[in-house]
Amino acid sequence: MSAPLRLLLLCASSSLLILQAARADSSDPGFALRLSGEKRKQHEGRVEVLLNGEWGTVCDDDFSLAAAHVVCRGLGFTDAESWAPRAKFGQGQGRIWLDNVHCSGLEKSLLECESNGVGVSDCKHSEDVGVVCSQRRIAGFQFIPSGLNHIVEDVRIRATYSHRKRVPITEGFLEVKDAGKWRQICDVDWTARNSRVICGMYGFPTEKRHNPKPYKLLSSRRKKNFWGHSVNCTGNEAGLSECKLGREVPLKGNSTCSKGGPVVVSCAPGRAFAPSVSAGFRKAYRLEQPLVRLRGGAKIGEGRVEVLKNGEWGTVCDDHWDLTAATVVCRELGFGSAKEALTGARMGQGMGPVHMNEVQCSGFEKSLTECRFNRESTDCSHEEDAAVRCHIPEMGFNKRLRLSGGRNPLEGRVEVLGQRNGSLVWGEVCSEGWGTMEAMVVCRQLGLGFASHAFQETWYWQSDTSANAVVMSGVKCSGAELTLDQCLHHGKHVACPRGGGRFAAGVSCALTAPDLVLNAAVVEQTTYLEDRPLYALQCALEENCLSSSVFSSQIHNNGQSDFRPLSGPQSWVWHECHRHFHSMEVFTHYDLLSLNGTKVAEGHKASFCLEDTQCDEGIQKRYECANFGQQGVTVGCWDLYRHDIDCQWIDITDLRPGDYIFQVVINPTFEVAESDYSNNVMKCKARYNGHRLWTYNCHIELQCQLQ
Fold it and tell me: What are the boundaries of the signal sequence (predicted)?
């Protein structure tokens, strides 16, 4: 009976030996991890491991979230958000080092997990696994040098004492945090491409030269504390941690880097962030005539990418869209490198043509239009519109303004830091003339997205009693300002007849907003002339509009939230002629202009009922005017006002024959907040001969708006 027992023990021992053989030595100094491939964020990518001096991939067979946690922690992130099979981030090259990886999630290294063994795999690179890590870093994470890609705890530009009050900080000693201590980098092997990466991280489009003399003097008086490595960047990396390590720097105390000194980085800010010349800045990044713009973003430096081609703005398809291409866009617009390359119309769907598809950039192009792309591909829809999020400089905007008393962080009474009796104090903003444009600037300055509502009475929000005084009045914004103090206002001469308190300005913000766009082709195709007798215009008389030139208008909601009327149903007005409620007093203006822009006829639409007339495929209608229904326009739907509806016209009874401009303006008083007001105006050329009216060349007239 003992022989079978002995045989089982031998089998168990054999199994144990095989199991241990499948666990490689995790302390191997030649082992390293990195995230590579066609990634759109810095914390995601194809998992690659360095073994025996050769980079290889990991197969997705039996991979799990627990294994992803081990990978992410090995790279200095707190944990993993998800993992991706089937080479989502592109196929790697070389060896497939690990297959059938089993982790409990507690391992300190991927090599401690069970697997088939190092280099034992029957997979193809079409099965390369990828991970998406949390953006949170492990505090005090210490990088063990592998000679290649690495992680550092933190990076900073340390300005000299005389420059520390400048905003933004664009120049200073570069320091990295390693083992809990800030250290300088020796500049012997430092290149302009390294500086380019640092500037991009800090929201600046490019590096610039600096005066080295004051820094040499300062460094000679400071205690040396150098990092033990040099850095080798290509210039395209999203951050310093993605650059390769250069040679080791021998640490010899104050004798370290004897042939050089600490690295100094100097960056050129984009025009929107450049201080005035009087503040000591003479060089800033100057944006040439823009061929690229961002639309639909909730914050500064983000949005849907649109390109100007043959006089018409169009979008970019997300096929092959990556961080390199996104960074070209960001730098072109005066921002830093890209934080994310977004796909799937994450910033809303655009209108018009898709100008570029399968974009491939080297990273050093001055404009996205210089990158290669597939000119033959025409199979993209606006559901695939590409977008970006860019690094922007730290301006401290949110330290000069706050919301007080709201039910949540997205709403409240607006309070600003203002001058009072020679000192800076928190105070209220006068609500006289306060509207959506002013609220938009407040929400943007605080990084809270779009304005949802602007309030001229805020008695229901309790504020800090020490901030009851009005310190800003007469505020008038265009909507393009980065901060409220950039808007027109009374300055030191505060005048607020109603006072603050219950009449202090307030806002509510939202991370998404609608975006109404008129379909110009429908207007052009449906405009015609008609004579109607007065007895047939009872509803027109009720709504104070008469006409002879009629047309249809089709208004799309291309934003990321539904377009809803500002007032609730209790404020809507019943119209007996139409047998439904009108929810907006002024929704659209129709005007006929002379060639010099003078208004010669108008068809002001007094009020509207908002509903989903039709929607894109797969989207359900949510709003209807009939049966006392809820009103609005759903994302991906449009509201069609046919030419035979009363007041869908312009009265040209007394108009002389000639050439004119036909103009339609949606949401003209900005009553409802949108993500983009620049596309709310449509213009057509019009010709009237006394008997017929022709409209042609209808197009969206783009207005100036910062993104």
Answer: 1-24
